[in-house]
Specification:
mainly alpha, RNA_pol_sigma_r3/r4-like, 68% helix, 8 helices
């Protein structure tokens, strides 16, 4: 990964975590689709025959395809979130770690500089330093298995 891709990955962390939580709720949680919520019926509607409560094969197949797609996306984001979280351990220097954490939260350079009481240019230089550390360590490539292995 190049420097810009690593920076984008760190900046994307905050929304990827939210998406991982959402996908986990959908795939593993007790999320009930609104169309399956029961609605009380009265009068003639209550006595009329209802359709089959089961789903057709096409609906089941489509649901499986959707769940498979969501599962793949979940794994993709989980790998990236994990890599970004472990990246914090590879960074040296307390201010570098604070800047890294602030970037993970989606803070802008301006907000980080106000938070730390330093200039935006200093924040940018320090960001470049720790991204260089991560590039030299090949941290993200190893965790994300982006390099192709020779067979």
């Amino acid at each position: 990964m190049n420097r810009k891709e690593i920076e984008n990955l760190i900046n994307s962390y905050h929304w990827m975590v939210k998406e991982v939580r959402r996908l986990q709720r959908v795939l593993y949680g007790s999320v009930i689709p609104m169309k399956n919520w029961g609605v009380a019926q009265y009068g003639l509607e209550a006595t009329m025959p209802k359709g089959s409560p089961g789903k057709s094969q096409a609906e089941l197949r489509q649901m499986d395809m959707r769940e498979e797609r969501l599962f793949k996306r979940l794994k993709y984001y989980e790998e990236r979130v994990y890599a970004v979280e472990l990246g914090a351990e590879k960074i040296h220097g307390e201010q570098h770690k604070v800047i890294y954490d602030c970037m993970m939260e989606g803070m802008s350079y301006r907000a980080i500089s106000l938070h730390l009481g330093i200039s935006r240019e200093t924040v940018r230089k320090m960001k470049d330093e720790f991204i260089s550390q991560l590039c030299q360590d090949c941290h993200f490539e190893r965790l994300l298995n982006l390099k192709k292995s020779v067979v």
